[in-house]
């Protein structure tokens, strides 16, 4: 009865793991699919071996148990040639069955695609946010990674400070971003949608808050997004309050944050911050949440590099108005 309860409870808990935007067990692209296939192959082989051993073990326990009236130790057997060959050959074959697809898939996933065949994206991990550069498109953005569906994305990954790990579970396995080193791999999303990304390497106080989103759109929409993104850099603030916000931004924020190509690169590029899925990767993108972030960034994401600017309430309102207005048309 207890066992049954345990099984039911575990099933219920695990059924919560089926989020197609965040699960390696619900693959959404070819890389994730081949990795999932490898997982299934090795788990099936392991389970097969486990059950065969269990059955033989149980059979031997029962068949050769000590019976009433039996005295002394049983006949001792050693050096069975046939058995020894059998239990050497079977694991060897099983390892080959696992090794051949594992090695060939590994090589296929490590292939580097040139820009004719794949969209090139440079990923830079920062404490605690992600920078994305599209060198061939002249676009630098952060936190929301736009990609076209059905196309390979070739990543070049590095870090600006400590080791992070770039992970989009539903699109494929993770890859470390190391300071001073460049790693590369490719991923692809088959269906349009928003996939969740995580940092998978403990990198400081707000490691668990270092989230990002992958926004996969059709190739047409992606083309439109790139054009809009470039146009958005020139857009003027829509209201007087936003204009005030822009002035504050250009005095206090531009040393670290860029809009378009104007500004520093210590903090996230904010060209389309008003259109992003989240603020700082974790807060809902709403004016009150943006204000909460601006009033005290350290309270939201401890240890991040943005200082508390001690803004007056009026300045916060103006900045919120300006920043929420930074969008690319969709
Ligand atoms: Cu990290």
SSE arrangement:
Blueprint: H1 2-15, H2 30-63, H3 81-110, E1 118-126, E2 129-134, E3 139-142, E4 144-148, E5 152-159, E6 164-168, E7 172-177, E8 183-187, E9 193-199, E10 212-217, H4 219-232, H5 240-253, E11 258-259, E12 262-263, E13 278-279, E14 283-284, H6 287-295, H7 297-300, H8 313-324
Parallel strand pairs: 1-5, 4-10
Antiparallel strand pairs: 1-2, 2-3, 5-8, 6-7, 6-9, 9-10, 11-12, 13-14
The protein binds copper (II) ion.
The site of copper (II) ion has 8 residues, from loops.
In short:
The chain has 330 residues and is of the alpha+beta class.
How would you characterize the overall build of this protein?
A hairpin with a 3-residue loop joins strand 13 (278-279) and strand 14 (283-284). The longest helix has 34 residues, at 30-63. The chain is an alpha+beta fold and 330 residues long. The strands form 4 sheets. Strands 3-2-1-5-8 form a 5-stranded mixed β-sheet. The protein has 8 helices and 14 strands. It folds into 2 domains: 20-64 and 79-231, Sandwich (Immunoglobulin-like); 240-324, Immunoglobulin-like, CATH 2.60.40.420. Residues 125, 128, 164, 199, 201, 203, 207, 210 line the site of copper (II) ion.
């Amino acid at each position: 009865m207890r066992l049954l309860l345990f099984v039911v409870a575990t099933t219920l808990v695990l059924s919560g793991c089926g989020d197609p935007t965040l699960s390696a067990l619900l693959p959404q692209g070819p890389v994730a699919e081949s990795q999932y296939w490898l997982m299934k192959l090795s788990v099936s082989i392991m389970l097969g071996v486990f059950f065969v051993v269990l059955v033989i073990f149980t059979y031997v326990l029962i068949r050769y148990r000590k019976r009433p009236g039996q005295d002394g130790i049983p006949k001792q057997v050693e050096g069975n040639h046939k058995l020894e060959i059998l239990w050497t050959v079977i694991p060897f074959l099983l390892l080959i069955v696992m090794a051949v697809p594992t090695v060939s898939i590994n090589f296929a996933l490590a292939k580097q695609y040139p820009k004719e065949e794949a969209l090139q994206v440079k990923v830079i991990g920062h404490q605690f946010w992600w920078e994305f550069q599209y060198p061939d498109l002249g676009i630098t953005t952060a936190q929301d990674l736009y990609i076209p569906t059905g196309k390979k994305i070739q990543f070049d990954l590095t870090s600006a400070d400590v080791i992070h790990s770039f992970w989009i579970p539903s699109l494929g396995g993770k890859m470390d971003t190391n300071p001073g080193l460049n790693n590369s791999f490719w991923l692809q999303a088959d269906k349009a949608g928003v996939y969740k990304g995580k940092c998978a390497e403990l990198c400081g106080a707000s490691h668990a808050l270092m989230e990002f989103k992958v926004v996969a759109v059709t190739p047409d929409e992606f083309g439109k997004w790139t054009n809009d993104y470039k146009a958005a850099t020139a857009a003027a603030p829509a209201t007087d309050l936003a204009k005030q916000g822009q002035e504050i931004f250009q005095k206090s924020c531009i040393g670290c944050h860029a809009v378009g190509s104007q500004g520093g690169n210590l903090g996230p590029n904010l060209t389309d911050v008003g259109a992003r899925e989240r603020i700082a990767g974790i807060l809902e993108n709403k004016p009150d949440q943006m204000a909460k972030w601006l009033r005290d960034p350290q309270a939201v994401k401890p240890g991040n590099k943005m200082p508390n600017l001690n803004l007056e309430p009026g300045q916060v309102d103006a900045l919120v108005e300006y920043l929420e207005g930074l969008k690319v048309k969709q």
